[in-house]
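Co-fold these.
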Amino acid sequence: MVRRKYRSQAGIVHDILEVLHEEGAMPATRIATYANLPYDRLKIILSSLEESGLIAKEEGGYVITEKGIEALTILRKSRKLLESLGFKL
Amino acid sequence: MNPQALIAVSVLISFFGSVISLYISRSLMRVGRVIGDKGLTLASIAMAVYGLTLLLEALVNSFAPARLAVHGRRPQELLSVLVNRGTLVAIPLYTLSYAFLAASHYVSGTAVEGSSRREREYAMIPLFILIFIDYNIIDLIVLAIAAIMVLGRYGSARLPTVLFYAILAASHSLAIGLLIASSSWWIIPASTILRGVAPVALLFSSYK
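Predicted complex below.
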C-alpha cells in the first residue's frame, strides 16, 4: 500500500509566505517547487491566500502583502506551539 | 494521606492548567483565523473545551473537602463517590475535547502526494459513540485516535506531543483503575492533577 504524505495547512502557508518574503515576486510554478506541493493543490491554496489578502497577484507573479507579513510573523512565533500539538510544519 | 490536602492541590493545579489551556486556545484561534486553517480553529476549540472542563472539574471538586468535613469518617468507597462528582460531570466534555483534537489533525493535514477526500467522513465517528460506555475508556480510545491521526498524517511526533498524549492517557487510565480499586479515593484527585499538568508540559516544552 502506498503511504500518502501529509503536511499541516499552517506549514504549507508558512512555506509559501516565507519564500515570497525572502525571494520577492514569484510565479506559481516556482512556488510549487519551494513549497514542495503538487501544482493543482497549490493553486487552490494560492487562491485562498489571495482571497484572504495575504498575497497578491502582480506582473512578476505572486507577492506577499503587509497582511501576509503580519501572518508570517504570527506563524513564526507560534511554530513551536503548533509542533508541540502535533501539527507538522 | 490527607484527602483535603490532596484535593486542594489537584484543584489548584487544575486552575493553573485551565488558564494555560485557554491561553493556548487563544493563540491557536488567532493563527487559524489569520491563515484560514479550519484545523487550527478546531484545535483551538478543543483546547478551550479542555480548559473550561478543567475549570468546571476543579470548581465542583473544590466543594469535596467541605462535604468530607461534614460527613466525617466514611467508608473509602463513599469517599471516592464524594470526590468524584466534578470528574463525573467533566469526563464527557473531555471526550468532546479529544474528538475535536482528532478532527483538527484530520482537517489540517493536507495530502502533498496522492488524494483522499473520502476519509474526511470518518473524523466525526468519535462524536457518535460518546454515550455508550464508560467515558474514561472512550476518552482513551478517542485520545488514541487523535494520536494515530498525528502519526498517520505526519509520520512522526515530537517529544512534547508524545508527553501531552501520554499524560492525558495516564490520567484516564488511573480513573479506570477506580473501577477495580473502588476504595482508592485518591485516584480521582491524582488523575485530575495529571490533566492539569498536561497543558503545562505542552507550553513549557514549546518555549524552552
